[in-house]
Hints:
Elements: H1 4-25, H2 31-36, H3 43-70, H4 76-91, H5 93-102, H6 108-116, H7 122-154, H8 158-206, H9 210-219, H10 237-244, H11 254-262, H12 269-297, H13 309-317, H14 320-358, H15 364-386, H16 393-417, H17 423-442, H18 452-469, H19 475-487
Amino acid sequence: MIQTETLLTFGVYLVFLLAVGWYFYKRTSDIEGYILGGRGLGGWVTALSAQASDMSGWLLMGLPGAVYLGGMTEAWIAIGLLVGTALNWIFVSTRLRVYTEMTDTLTISSFFEKRFNDPTSLLRVGSAVIILIFFTIYSSSGLVAAGKLFESMFNIDYSVAVITGAVVIVSYTFLGGFMAVCWTDFFQGGLMFFAIVLVPILGTIDNGGIPAIEAEMMARHISTSLFHNGAGVPISIVAIISTMAWGLGYFGQPHILTRFMGISSIKELPKATAVALVWVVISLAGAVVVGMVAIPMFDGLHGGEQEKVFIYMIAKLFNPWVGGVLLAAILSAIMSTIDSQLLVSSSALTEDFYKKILRRNASDKELMLVGRLCVLVISIIAMSMALTPGNTVLGLVSYAWGGFGAAFGPVVLFALYSRKTSWISALSGMIVGTLVLVFWKDAGLGATMYEIVPGFVANLLTIMIVNLIVPQKDEQILACFDEMKTALHK
Length: 490
C-alpha cells in the first residue's frame, strides 16, 4: 500500500528537479552553455556533481547487493574505486581542464581529434560511436534501478515504473542541459551522502552492532574478511586484481571527465578534489556496511532481489516521512548518472556527428534543438533495453564502465602526458582495447578476470608499440603540448 507521506515527499522532490531544469532552460543561450555550462562551475558543484554522476544507482543498490551475497571480499570493488577516483582527480582533472580550453573543445571526442591532429576524423567519430553504445547500456542500468525502486515501494508495474523515471530525467536534462544536470547532481549528491551515512548507522545499531552482524555472516558462511571467502579459503591475487580493476575505468568515463572540463578555473580543483575524496570514502564505506547489515535483516534474497536491500532497510527502519526522503536519495543516485550520460551522448551526436558531418555551419539555436532531440532518442532506446527481463543494475554498469575504461582510459592518459603519441596510435589503441573487451566478455572470460583489465592493457600496449612506428611529428601539436605544461605552472 502506498504511504501518503512517502508519495508526497517524492512528488515534491520531482517537482524541484523539473523547476531546476526550467530555471536553466531560460538561461542557456548557446551550445557551449548547453554542453559545458560556459565552463563556469564552482569547486563544490564540480566535486559533488562529478561523484554523484559517477556512483549512480549501483552505489545504493548494486554494491550493497553484491556485499549481501558475497560478503567483504566484494569490498575490493570499493577500494579499487577509491584509488581510481583519487588518481583521476590528481592526474587528469587539471591537465584536461587546461588542454580542452586551449583546443577549444566541448566533448571528449572533439578533444581527441584536435589533440592528436587527426585529419580523417576517424578518432572523433569512432569515439562518439563508442560513447553512444556504452552510454545507452549504462543509462538502461539506471532505468532498471528506477524500475526496481518504484516497483518495490509503490507496488506498480515494473514497465510503468521505468517509463515514469525516464520521463522525469529526460525532462530536466532536455530543458536545462549541463547546468541543470550539474546543479541537480549537486543537490542529489548531498542527499545521497545523508542517506548513506544515516541508514547503515541505524541499521548497525538495530542489529546489535558489528560483532553480532559478523557472527550472523559467519553462521551463513559469508565472508567477513577481505582476504578469505565464506569457507575461510584465501582468495587469489587474480580475484583481487579483477575486482579492484573497477578503478581503471575512471580515466575513460566521459560523464566524469566533462565535469573537469566545465570547472571555472584550475584554482578551484584542489578544493574540489578534497571534497570529492571525502565524499567517496564515506559513501563507499556506507554502501559496504549496508550490504553487511542487510545479511541478518533479510534472508534468501537473490536473482536481482538482493539489489533492493537498501529499499527494504529504509522501509523497516524509518517512518514514512523520513523514509520518503531517504528513498528520494536512491532516486537521486539513479538520476544523477542517467542525466549526465544522456547529456554526454547528446553532445556526441550533436557536436561529433551533426555539426561535424551534416551541418558544419549550424547555428547555436539549431544545435541546442538537435541536442535536446538526441536526449529523447537515446532515452527511448535505453528505456527499451531496461524493459528487457533479467537485467541487473551491477551487470549492466560493469559492462559499460569497462567499455569506457578499455576504450578511452589509456588514450586520455597518453593525450595528457605523452608528446609523441600520434592520432594513428590513439585510434589503434582505442579500437584494439574495445575489441578485446567485447571478445573477453562474449567469450565468458569475465568470471576469471574483469574484462576491463585485458581491454585496458591491450589499448596501452597498442599505443606504445604504434608510437615506436608512427610517432607524433607535427610541430604545432608538439608546441601546443608544451604550452599546456607551461600553463599548469602559472
